[in-house]
Amino acid sequence: MKYINELREGESVVEHYLCKSRQSLKSRNGKTYLSLKLQDKTGIVDAKVWDMNKDIQSFAENDFIKIDGSVTVFNNDLQVNVKRIRRSMEGEYDPKEYVPTTDKNMDQMFQQLLDYINTIESPYIKTLLEEIFLRHPLISKEFKYHSAAKSMHHSFLGGLVEHTLSVTQICEFMSGRYQFVDRDILIASAMLHDAGKIMELSDFPENDYTDDGQLLGHIFLGAELIKDTAAKINGFPKQLESLLKHCILSHHGELEYGSPKVPETIEAFILHCADNMDAKTKMIEEMLAADNTQGNWAGFSRMLQRNIRRSDYK
Amino acid sequence: MKYINELREGESVVEHYLCKSRQSLKSRNGKTYLSLKLQDKTGIVDAKVWDMNKDIQSFAENDFIKIDGSVTVFNNDLQVNVKRIRRSMEGEYDPKEYVPTTDKNMDQMFQQLLDYINTIESPYIKTLLEEIFLRHPLISKEFKYHSAAKSMHHSFLGGLVEHTLSVTQICEFMSGRYQFVDRDILIASAMLHDAGKIMELSDFPENDYTDDGQLLGHIFLGAELIKDTAAKINGFPKQLESLLKHCILSHHGELEYGSPKVPETIEAFILHCADNMDAKTKMIEEMLAADNTQGNWAGFSRMLQRNIRRSDYK
Amino acid sequence: MKYINELREGESVVEHYLCKSRQSLKSRNGKTYLSLKLQDKTGIVDAKVWDMNKDIQSFAENDFIKIDGSVTVFNNDLQVNVKRIRRSMEGEYDPKEYVPTTDKNMDQMFQQLLDYINTIESPYIKTLLEEIFLRHPLISKEFKYHSAAKSMHHSFLGGLVEHTLSVTQICEFMSGRYQFVDRDILIASAMLHDAGKIMELSDFPENDYTDDGQLLGHIFLGAELIKDTAAKINGFPKQLESLLKHCILSHHGELEYGSPKVPETIEAFILHCADNMDAKTKMIEEMLAADNTQGNWAGFSRMLQRNIRRSDYK
Amino acid sequence: MKYINELREGESVVEHYLCKSRQSLKSRNGKTYLSLKLQDKTGIVDAKVWDMNKDIQSFAENDFIKIDGSVTVFNNDLQVNVKRIRRSMEGEYDPKEYVPTTDKNMDQMFQQLLDYINTIESPYIKTLLEEIFLRHPLISKEFKYHSAAKSMHHSFLGGLVEHTLSVTQICEFMSGRYQFVDRDILIASAMLHDAGKIMELSDFPENDYTDDGQLLGHIFLGAELIKDTAAKINGFPKQLESLLKHCILSHHGELEYGSPKVPETIEAFILHCADNMDAKTKMIEEMLAADNTQGNWAGFSRMLQRNIRRSDYK
Amino acid sequence: MKYINELREGESVVEHYLCKSRQSLKSRNGKTYLSLKLQDKTGIVDAKVWDMNKDIQSFAENDFIKIDGSVTVFNNDLQVNVKRIRRSMEGEYDPKEYVPTTDKNMDQMFQQLLDYINTIESPYIKTLLEEIFLRHPLISKEFKYHSAAKSMHHSFLGGLVEHTLSVTQICEFMSGRYQFVDRDILIASAMLHDAGKIMELSDFPENDYTDDGQLLGHIFLGAELIKDTAAKINGFPKQLESLLKHCILSHHGELEYGSPKVPETIEAFILHCADNMDAKTKMIEEMLAADNTQGNWAGFSRMLQRNIRRSDYK
Amino acid sequence: MKYINELREGESVVEHYLCKSRQSLKSRNGKTYLSLKLQDKTGIVDAKVWDMNKDIQSFAENDFIKIDGSVTVFNNDLQVNVKRIRRSMEGEYDPKEYVPTTDKNMDQMFQQLLDYINTIESPYIKTLLEEIFLRHPLISKEFKYHSAAKSMHHSFLGGLVEHTLSVTQICEFMSGRYQFVDRDILIASAMLHDAGKIMELSDFPENDYTDDGQLLGHIFLGAELIKDTAAKINGFPKQLESLLKHCILSHHGELEYGSPKVPETIEAFILHCADNMDAKTKMIEEMLAADNTQGNWAGFSRMLQRNIRRSDYK
């Protein structure tokens, strides 16, 4: 495959790319042309279609497309002048080449997560988790591929399962350290805390907020998911349902971060800490991994609002 | 009826009161006695049962009880020494004598609210409102008697319907003043915005937060109510359901006031303003009505964090 | 008229525009040239005067000027090379073509506002309003044409009278809904609440903060206006003057929004709510009206710090 | 004089005191009695008038009264049973015995302040200061006796002149240290910055917020004073008036402290710093002076929200 | 031993108690008497010494004293009238009866903490920890007995070692979960993060802020401890010293919680999370353990500003 | 010298400049070139080295270099194409031509500061100041040349001594105005309050945060400096050391500005006020001095978040 960061001025290029943006514009002489952004995992390049003819078949943003064009330079940036376009067919391209992806094994992480279900003692909670992770039409299928965020932490294919597994492991560790912790509730709410993100964020390659995501948010959507599922389980205790929903609703920790309730149970509080700890430590890790500057300082993290330093010393 | 603010030292009293608090204590010589707080709408008085015998029949907090006792003074405060207690029977007392109540007609206000249903054009929203206000087992029965708060504004019998009607009337007025307002959505969400309070706050005389009220809150409970009801209505549009739930979720206006989303539609924003305006103006009105000091200043409002002045001038 | 959004490369243009910005610069070879921004209601275009000769007559920022030039392209943006300039004379141009203007009838709105004066019962307040709206040299003349803001809501010709009328109508509606409201005080302070903006913001086309606007602000200037006017009215009650000034001073609702006092009377509080409600709902309405993107989301409002959605559904 | 902190159980007392509080109450047997708080500079004592007869002449809160009574103990606190009361006549008592007073010479401090007037170069500012400090009916008379606050700093007779002189001296010192400082504006606004307190706070012994104080505040009242006075001075420059008013309006430094504008000129900024520095350092000094505990820590300052330590060391 | 919660009116009592407070007062007839607060782990009782004679030997606050007195009732509260007092001698009393103490084994916890030292790879860090935990005159002796706070979490004998061990264990668990973590730095800073509390808080029974504690705080004192110790270790890398001090300085996570720097390294961030998580989860655990009310709600936590619920359900 | 703001297209230039930035980049055809930023006190210009040969000798960022090149225009900005580079030698250039410098006499200001040492009465404090200002290897040498900030106030050569002297003079003035002020402590902590900046910020021309500056900050570094120095002085009182360190630690006034303690002594509080007052008044002065626009408004200060006006009036 010809990666975007390998394109050079003057070359021809025939390749499948993800069309991340597609605008129909009018030039000064009134002619319509297309302005595109093509993406693969190595970067993004501008492309123009100056001549709209039958070789330019119909396609939409976030489609994979096969293009035939030539590489030019405009305003010091590379630009592809495209002569032919058609939509790519499944199988012609490997999605992993086009979007950032976890470097861990998604199937294996999902299986590790599922393995927690058998450690649950409460038959109600166990059934609830099975309904959601094994039988829910959307979640059972997409959980392992989803990202955990649009642009914060774990914003890559598999990010959701990676983050969820990590939070669950931290909660497991914490569950034995304090009295009064109901391990079943803690593990289940750890596994489910971000499940609403599957409804909040659309799949890669779009990976953007859905209508419901913006209007309702993953916190509400996650609590609603528990309600819907519990309603199908005979005799599911009402108070248990409320305790689980409380963990989901309060997991951002403070009202100003979008939780309509602060954590009022020991499980809800531990879940909040574990979620916060994993998400932000991962941000630091991602920043250090991406850093290739000299010296120990890796630059300013906009999300954490601070400079980050690797702990090397001499 | 012998009201509590009419009791005088040395009198005997035989009357029905609401038992607002009931503690079993041990005196220094090891004997068990009861310490009660008796309430009617004129005030609260301490009472003691020093001798636990068969004349003291079983009862619980928030029961209405008939007592037989005598009025004494302890530490400069009146106290009733109680010799006989039994639970009151329905019909022996008029609940309105014991709890604060709206001075408006609750049936009439509820009917005015119901009248809005026929002004709704969307058959889906109309059915939704009918399901909730006419057929929901709890809400259809209790809406008109409920309070709107534990201790803020409209914290009296009928406060919920009074506040809801007022917010709906303001929203009706506003709906014609701006473009792009979907009147159906605005009126429906105004009518429903505090319906979750019926699940959040228990009935008078207790009028305290329920378990679900504390764990989940009326904002979430109200949105869940819409979901449950919409699920029963054939073909209820998903986006419409989300828009209505968004209005409920965002009606506190800001995350730090417990809304997991800020208002993003024009109806959600107007609803928030109308709710805020009615609730706080009512606080000022209640404060001015209760004020009987000399001068124009009615004292400090803890809820509004300011002194309040009536606008008299000479 | 040749509108700015209709200019095309290579055309000649002879037209009146508003000169929004005028800078005298020196080119690398030391020659002086002018860099202008020309505006009409359809947009803004850069213009250059490379040759300063007698055909370039004297003018200043915010003058209307007649230009003769040709349209070129520089750095992908249109630019007008100007050969001749003179100041436009009144009558040669229609100001409404150059600045955004309310789509409602300014005279009619102003008359509706004046009609409220006759509904006032207090002779003192009535005279005060007449002095200000009918006889104040600046306000009586400019109120109906002024904008309500530099860049927030109602920032167009006639915005002040449109916003003021709307707030007054909302206050009228609210005045009958609560006890203890002095309708005269509420209506008068609604009519006057933003009158200080006439001193705070200069007229269109400049529409920028004045020296006094920046040093003192419209809140103080509005309260000072009441003081000055009341001083001319025989026997005007001192406490009434203070109550009116309090409404003006407190109408932003909180100290951090520039009110030196929070609302302490019921009229001051209602005024604050009505002002806030109208201003922000108008922002949403303006955003939805300007939106021409596909889908229901109209983009991010910087002033409200949120995405805005129109309530369409299917 | 018999001071309140010298009263002993069983004594008779005939003395003039300040009546700080006066309530008419009804005893349990329905008889009316008076409950008073008597004050001198050494403390406060409760007093009761059980028998309302002709020996109890008419008086009001904040009157000085002559009482004849006997000292008893109730609930472990001293109480005076009063048999006779009449209003004290001027000359019978020395107000300084009843209210806290500066330990510096008020006349001398006021003269020092007046001496600054002759150092002003601008004839307009000089006249303005003379009008206010020498000829304003209220301010010229009361400035030297007023307190600077109800309960914060300098809350004693003469506190206003002491604080104002100190701020003026600091501003004088600062005025020579930076370029661009207009000394006249800085000195004048320092002298005037709290003049509005004379209208905001009533005189001792009441020393409470006036109606205007609560509705408008000393910041607005001070700016209004400048406006009124400048209006009487022929040719007073409008911009100079605005610059002086800006200094007054902004002297609390931040909107959330009640300034409707933040300091935007170098004089306004220096004034704010000097005011803040003198007020808070004085709070610390007052706290250290009042402290008579052992050890270096003088306790918690509620106003400064911290513990205060004297800097002794060994 | 006769515990304070077992005292009854009329009894004589001869027992050792901790004198938590000691005031010398003057009665109304001018006689001096002592007012004491006596404490053991079951509660606090007032005591008075009315007659100051040779049987009342000299003692100070926070001394253990042996008293001989009788139990009376004053104002409905028990009070001990004391006739004889002398200071207790070591061995006559068991300190654990007087102050709250961890229910875990302090020696064992301290040993577990020390065991971490041998897992450190860096010889510099290893020596640093040995110097502090094994050889520092104050810390090596008191660490295992100290409390972790005056009144927040772990405010009991042994609280410091319990909290420190827990934070270290969490950090150990986390150290293997993310890349770029220097385990030595993380473990060492976890062990040392609250060591400054030994200088900040005096020992039980006083357990109050020291002079240095108030002036400088445990965060600064802990960083200074590292500096002092590193200075004694030959060749201790300067950057390593800074990285360790950074972890201590930043462990409160945000400036407003008293950290002069926010965490900028991955170890500093993990330490902050682990500290916060353990401290607050412990508060919830302590609250649930102390709760003996009916129902699932354990009341309002002032420190966490929320109601706490145990996760029981039916 | 040929200043950067005098360069013109087409000229040759042979001159010494400060190399503020140096990046090695690869062109599209794979050739390596250098991209530089050259600085003198009049501005900054881009430079490119297209041909890396022996005429381009080795140098680093923040070196002074002698270049030989020609001035071209790229993308409307001047650019120097450089053919020869070598490091400049000391003596070939005058550093003051390259970095902003105080317009006051640095030697004289430093001497004025030193003169305060002889006014100190406490021999301990006197010795401490001598140790630091006369004998500390780094501070005694660099204090007079250092800047006081990276980009806030006094960010120029000599800024530290200018600011320190000014704060000390203000503190001297204040020390006589309030009781309980220990002048020695106040003067010493004023002289030392920003001494940590010498370790926090590297020298000009780099003038950037050091590793320790970012990890620990000048507040901690300054307190550590006092500790280190006091440790060398025989018998230095521990409490005095703590009082001085407290002044340094708390001089930012509030936790959220990076002070781990708020000022708790009168000296610490005065120091904080003097520091704040001088720093921010200097920002205004610098802004007014730099302003060359027409009119009285000098623009928006990002650091003070407000517009600044000079107090001219007519």
UniProtKB/TrEMBL annotation, chains A, B, C, D, E, F:
CDD domains reported in the protein's UniProt record: HDc, YhaM_OBF_like
GO biological process, one term: rRNA 3'-end processing
Domain HD/PDEase: residue ranges: 156-289
E.C. numbers: 3.1.-.-
Keyword Hydrolase attached: yes
Enzyme type, top EC level: hydrolase
PANTHER family tied to this protein: 3'-5' EXORIBONUCLEASE YHAM
Official protein name in the record: 3'-5' exoribonuclease YhaM
Organism ancestry: Bacteria, Bacillati, Bacillota, Clostridia, Lachnospirales
Gene responsible for this protein: yhaM
